[in-house]
From TrEMBL:
Belongs to the glycosyl hydrolase 51 family. The keyword Protease does not apply. The lineage of its organism: Eukaryota, Fungi, Dikarya, Ascomycota, Pezizomycotina. This is non-reducing end alpha-L-arabinofuranosidase. It is an enzyme of class 3 (hydrolase). Its EC number is 3.2.1.55. PANTHER family: ALPHA-L-ARABINOFURANOSIDASE C, ALPHA-L-ARABINOFURANOSIDASE C-RELATED. Keywords: Carbohydrate metabolism, Glycosidase, Hydrolase. It catalyses: Hydrolysis of terminal non-reducing alpha-L-arabinofuranoside residues in alpha-L-arabinosides. One of its GO terms (molecular function) is alpha-L-arabinofuranosidase activity. The keyword Transferase does not apply. It comes from Epicoccum nigrum.
């Protein structure tokens, strides 16, 4: 457990770390990415043929290296909202025969130059797993089954043979499949009621699992805090009572997806906004339990985990989707990203996957130009988490003063605390212990009692900048990682507006 005690100003903050108390195994997939046919994410992002920075497939090598540095385990594709009018069959086969189509999510034209086989190839080059989202807008179940067959089947059947004809003998074995994207949203082509969605998701799930029982199916939730989440979970969990073809150790629905973007123009509401995401995880977890209890689901039927498959800082007014959503991230946003990730680690027991939205150019840590790559402020905490915060969440107790001002959303206040020092800790499989601390205060350095640490020598990685509004540009990298060492004794001072990762070898 991570416990938090709010203390008055003037009292010394403290953090105690309890490596022997392992809370949960962290699923590496919480460091997942997301690439949508939107703005410059695919075209000009991961795929930029003719650019000297690209390989023979047209894939940007600098982007591939960044994904590898980040060790991104899984990447969601092809949307997002884009998927609601996407026909996967347009994006396969000889390029000169692929049709260009109107695209209705971001109001553009999709050339289909990049499609399923290109994405699979790109995943193989990067060393990541694909996660495909099915079209619940204009798409039919027959098309979805065709896509699954194309990707995963080794039968002598039409779509499996089409894949072979297109140059790929072996199935891709795509494990993760989403049952639509944000089907509740008024912006969706074929927005649905929760009743219609639950029925459709269930029927599709049944057919998809009949074709390939090994896949992991992800239900389309909302924010985890809505009646949509309650309803679709309750119905689909209920219909899972008898398991998969009578086998109650297998389920039709494996994960429940939620999405939250946060943003505020003022620093503290911005940096504390991702506390809503942690509360949403807790609420979704409760809804999963409730669905199982209300429907008397046998314990043997696996409990769905949470797939937080879109999260990040994004203000769609500041960076409209139709204009490519190229957010310029500040240090304040980097601290918000660290608070999101702290929450994922603390709630690891429920987290099956999380995907930062998105991974390149569109609301992204990475920005390409014709001649290089910019690592935005939010890249740096993400990199430290993805590199080091793997293994088990371990117990900590934090005493810190609390921010008590306005929050965004306002319901954070009264449902979850907003400490100035937001922390989590991880025991790695390599014997290293990691303590991540985000000091969201704009003004105060905090001297923190860490006397129980039991460390000889501590590696310190600090992400900060001159003030909370600094950004990174091609010419000027204001935010990066500063590395130093600490003797691990007594008090450590966490500087104002910083993210700090302390790492030491367990003794
Ligand atoms: O990530 C950008 C968009 O945000 C996605 O397409 C959609 O699912 C969400 O509304």
């Amino acid at each position: 457990m991570a416990t938090f005690t709010s203390i008055p100003d003037g009292e010394k903050p403290s953090i105690s770390v309890h490596p022997a108390n392992k809370i949960a195994k962290i699923n590496d997939n919480i460091y997942g990415g997301f690439t949508e046919h939107m703005g410059r994410c695919i075209y000009g992002g991961i795929y930029d043929p003719g650019n000297p920075l690209s390989d023979e497939n047209g894939f940007r090598k600098d982007v591939i290296e960044a994904f590898q540095e980040l060790k991104v385990p899984v990447v969601r594709y092809p949307g997002g909202n884009f998927v609601a009018t996407y026909d996967w069959r347009d994006g396969i086969g000889p390029r000169d025969q692929r049709p260009a189509r109107p695209e209705l999510a971001w109001i553009g034209t999709e050339t289909n130059e990049f499609g399923t086989d290109e994405f699979m190839k790109w995943c193989e080059v990067v060393g990541t797993e694909p996660y495909l989202c099915l079209n619940f807008g204009t798409g039919t179940l027959a098309e979805a089954l065709g896509w699954l067959e194309y990707c995963n089947s080794d039968r002598d059947s039409y779509y499996a043979n089409l894949r072979r004809k297109n140059g790929r003998e072996k199935p891709y074995n795509v494990k993760y499949w989403a049952l639509g994207n944000e089907c509740w949203g008024p912006w969706q082509v074929e927005q649905m009621t929760k009743e219609d969605y639950a029925k459709k998701a269930w029927q599709w799930a049944k057919a998809l699992k009949l074709l390939d029982p090994t896949i992991t199916l992800i239900l389309c939730g909302e924010t985890g805090t809505s009646s949509w989440d309650y309803y679709v979970l309750n119905k689909c969990v209920k219909w899972s009572v008898h398991g998969l073809s009578g086998d109650t150790t297998k389920s039709f629905i494996d994960m429940h997806s939620i999405h939250i973007y946060t943003a505020d123009n003022e620093h503290l509401p911005n940096a504390t906004a991702p506390r809503a995401a942690e509360r949403a995880i807790q609420m979704t977890s409760a809804l999963i339990d409730l669905a199982r209890i209300e429907n008397k689901v046998p314990e043997t039927v696996p409990r769905p985990t949470i797939c937080f498959d879109e999260w990040n800082v994004w203000d769609p007014v500041r960076a409209p989707g139709e204009e490519g959503a190229e957010e310029k991230y500040t240090l304040s946003d980097a601290l918000a990203v660290a608070v999101f990730l702290n929450g994922f680690i603390r709630q690891a027991k429920d987290m099956g996957m999380a995907n930062i939205a998105q991974s390149v150019n569109v609301i992204s840590p990475l920005m390409t130009s014709k001649d290089g790559l910019i690592k935005q402020t939010i890249w740096w905490p993400l990199l430290l988490f993805s590199k080091y915060m793997r293994g088990h969440t371990i117990a900590i107790n934090v005493k810190s003063p609390e921010y008590t001002g306005r929050t965004n959303p306002s319901w954070i206040r009264g449902t979850i605390e907003t400490p100035y020092l937001d922390a989590c800790a991880v025991a790695g499989e390599d014997g290293w212990l990691n303590l991540a601390v985000t000091n969201v205060s704009e003004e105060r350095d905090f001297e923190v009692d860490l006397s129980g640490l039991k460390a000889d020598k501590v590696e310190v990685h600090t992400v900060t900048g001159e003030h909370v509004q600094v950004t990174n540009t091609a010419e000027d990298q204001q935010v990066g990682i500063q590395e130093s060492e600490w003797d691990g004794k007594g008090t450590y001072t966490f500087p104002k507006h910083s993210f700090t990762l302390l790492r030491w070898k367990a003794i």
